[in-house]
Amino acid sequence: MKKLIELDINGRLYEVAVNDRDLLLDVIRKKAGLFGTKKGCGEGDCGACTVLIDGKPELACLKLAIACQGKKITTVEGLIQEGGALHPIQQAFVDHGAVQCGFCTPGMIMSAKGLLDRNPKPTLYDIKHELSGNICRCTGYKRIIEAVQAAAEVWSKEGVK
Amino acid sequence: MFLNHFEYFAPKTSRETLELVSRLGNKAKILAGGTDLMVLMKAKAISPEYLIDINGVEEFKGIVCEEGKGAVIGANTKLAEIQFSEELKAKYPALAYAAGEVGSSQVRHMASLGGNTCNASPAADTPIPLVALGTKVVINSLSGERELLLEDFIQNVRKTNLAEGEMLTNFILPEPVPQSACRYTYMGRRDAMEIDIVNMAVNIELETDGETIKNVKLVMGSVYPRPLVSKEVPPLLIGQKLSEALIEKAAEAAQGEAKPIDDIRASAEYRREIVKVLARRLLKETYDAAKGV
Ligand SMILES: Cc1cc2nc3c(=O)[nH]c(=O)nc-3n(C[C@H](O)[C@H](O)[C@H](O)COP(=O)(O)OP(=O)(O)OC[C@H]3O[C@@H](n4cnc5c(N)ncnc54)[C@H](O)[C@@H]3O)c2cc1C
Ligand code: FES
Ligand code: FES
Q1: For A67-75, what is the mean pLDDT?
Q2: Domains, chain B, ordered by start
Q3: Is A130 near chain B, with CB under 8 Å?
């Protein structure tokens, strides 16, 4: 039997009918119509489905939608700045050529956001360690790491949120 | 990859949770971080009829770490909290380090300490330092509470001492004694997101001379169906000052006790070799840490 629940995604309330077994990833994509969040492995290994839940990076492919009531969910679409500008992390990914096919990018960016919110001045080790759950098959990690380092600089200077 | 149909419960208090656990029995599974449970359900390895989500219960979360009084960690405390806790990093660096080496950042923000233990995987990271530290688990049911050493709680692959109607609620870590240190290490194919080939923790306590070993505990993971506490290493080292020759002997003893298997990650032969390598390194590292160098 479906239940009507409310989910706060990017500050907007979505009223959705879900089964107990529905996964957050499917609800974000199919019911909220937000296609930024990607489905890769579906088993927790690739990080393509990373979203922030109450500010912490979590895997939407292993999360029940019904368990997310009353929580703040942020997807890559939620990073958009006033006037439609890109978020500094997104801009850094563009500037540093850290996007190729782009499939891993939303997850990478959400992981990077989770890291920088907690630790705005990460070391190279911190970046590698905290982004190791995001797999990229095309760009290679060097440019992605450079992009996060560049974003961290903007972050420390301008105090982005 | 759909999940089976189940009924979902989200209790708010420990009493409500225990009532559900008691009433629904083996047809139900507790849902903490879901990083083991959801994967198993997606693979259709298990199909519980009920899920009891404990994430709304504040009593199951949190770290209480008081000066001189050890620590109490709630079963549903997330591994990321343990990884970043300044208090735990100072008092129990082996545990904070092991928590920070589990899976990925996302996994650690979801996964709980209790889930890592209750899943009872022989390759799990955190039970190894917890056992070396002499941790007890608190088990609750409607009929009361009992305590058990963690090393007696994990019994076999995916098997714990929990009876129907019971759940794990807390971990109790004893206060580290003066002149002691505990360290953790592991070996995997790669650094990130890797299930360990061998993992190990060593806890060493020194006499007041700051050199003679008073107590030692060496615990191995991934080489036995449950965390393996070495019986042969303590008699070799207690009363001695650590030397290269003794390290070699102790490492060989640990190697002899390990009973690893061949699997997709490594051969038994390779694992036995690694036990020796890790034991050598870790005994030295822990001894030096206990001496304060
Ligand atoms: C991509 C990925 C990488 C991983 N890497 C590692 C790794 O490197 N090292 C490692 O050790 N593990 C790893 N794991 C496994 C997993 O993340 C850990 O075992 C984790 O700690 C499980 O905790 P959880 O809260 O998610 O448990 P859940 O999945 O919620 O629960 C696990 C089991 O324990 C039971 N349970 C949970 N809490 C309680 C309780 N309080 N009382 C009674 N029963 C309970 C559940 O019913 C279930 O059977 C990985 C998992 C994934 C998906
Ligand atoms: S789709 Fe969630 S981790 Fe791969
Ligand atoms: S850009 Fe293609 S997977 Fe990363």
Answers
A1: 98
A2: 7-52 (3.30.43.10), 63-173 (3.30.465.10), 180-291 (3.30.390.50)
A3: yes
Kindly report, residue by residue over B128-139, the tens digit of the pLDDT.
Answer: 999 999 999 999
The string over B94-116, giving b where at least 16 C-beta atoms fall within 10 Å of a residue's C-beta and e elsewhere, is: bbbbbbbbbbbbbbbbbbbbbbb
Asked whether residue B21 carries a pLDDT value surpassing 90, the answer given is yes
CA neighbor of B263 nearest in space, from B156, B155, B122: B122
Kindly state the average pLDDT of the residues A35-63.
98
* Residues whose beta carbon lies within 6 Å of some atom of ligand 2: A 39-42, 44-49, 59, 61
Q: How far is the CA of A158 from the centre of ligand 3 (A)?
A: 28
Q: Which domains does chain A have, with CATH numbers?
A: 3-78 (3.10.20.30), 80-158 (1.10.150.120)
Q: Which ligand has the nearest atom to the CA of A46?
A: 2
Mean pLDDT of B40-58: 97
Task: Give residues with Cβ within 8 angstroms of B115, minimum separation 6.
Answer: B32, B33, B35, B36, B37, B76
Give the Cα separation of B204 and B288 in Å (integer).
10
E strand spans, chain A: 3-9, 12-18, 50-53, 56-59, 72-74
Nearest residue on chain B to A58, alpha-carbon basis = B106
Measured distance CA(B98)–CA(B173) in Å, rounded: 15
DSSP per residue, A92-137:
HHHHTT--SS-SSHHHHHHHHHHHHHH-SS--HHHHHHHTTT---S
* Model ipTM value: 0.97
Q: How confident is the model at residue A155 (pLDDT cuts 50, 70, 90)?
A: confident
> Do residues A134 and A44 lie in contact, with contact meaning Cβ atoms separated by under 8 Å?
no
| pLDDT tens-digit readout, B217-266 | 999 998 999 999 999 999 999 999 999 999 999 999 999 999 988 887 78
